Amino acid sequence: GQNIDQPTEMTATEGAIVQINCTYQTSGFNGLFWYQQHAGEAPTFLSYNVLDGLEEKGRFSSFLSRSKGYSYLLLKELQMKDSASYLCAVRAKGSRGSTLGRLYFGRGTQLTVWP
Amino acid sequence: GAVVSQHPSRVICKSGTSVKIECRSLDFQATTMFWYRQFPKKSLMLMATSNEGSKATYEQGVEKDKFLINHASLTLSTLTVTSAHPEDSSFYICSARLADSSYEQYFGPGTRLTVT
What we know:
The structure holds two protein chains of two kinds.
Chain A: E1 2-5, E2 9-13, E3 18-26, E4 29-37, E5 44-49, E6 53-57, E7 60-65, E8 70-75, E9 84-92, E10 103-105, E11 109-114
Parallel strand pairs in A: 2-11
Antiparallel strand pairs in A: 1-3, 3-8, 4-5, 4-9, 6-7, 7-8, 9-10, 9-11
Chain B: E1 4-7, E2 10-13, E3 19-25, E4 30-38, E5 45-51, E6 57-58, E7 67-73, E8 76-81, E9 90-98, E10 105-107, E11 111-115
Parallel strand pairs in B: 2-11
Antiparallel strand pairs in B: 1-3, 3-8, 4-5, 4-9, 5-6, 7-8, 9-10, 9-11
């Protein structure tokens, strides 16, 4: 089975840096995703990690350690519009030899950015 | 980028009626589409995986006779909630995977279903 854990809520101020952690236990790992979701909207893709290390994309960076079952999303120069839920999702290995398995989502971390 | 649409965006129906939700990939072909539901402040729960031209694969605990999924073409999948009840009220989101993509899913904007 899959178990994905991330904090329920976080707060930060504009211009600051925030790190959202995600730990996972999986029976077959095939990549980790971070999504941003504003209330009442669909998730939007932020990042994808399949190898250990840091992936940087503008103000957002994502880190993965497969041996530790750990990832984090780093948001720099926070803006008010970054207030949203951030979802960590792990992709399992597919069945019947396929590598395109389903996604398992964490509960999401609700980030509130204060002025 | 890849665009996925859902229709309707919001629907209110009475108990006992059926509701159909459409999910379309607008500028790409999707051999696989996924249907999720999300309760307030909860994460996305996968309901079923829909493959074009074949029967959907339902997750444990999801009633296939209640949530009918049809994936008749590479750009359209439909979810029909049959004999809806108030507990079916939820946010339903579909996603589509590019036919030759290695990893990414593109999400639709979601459908808010309210059953009265």
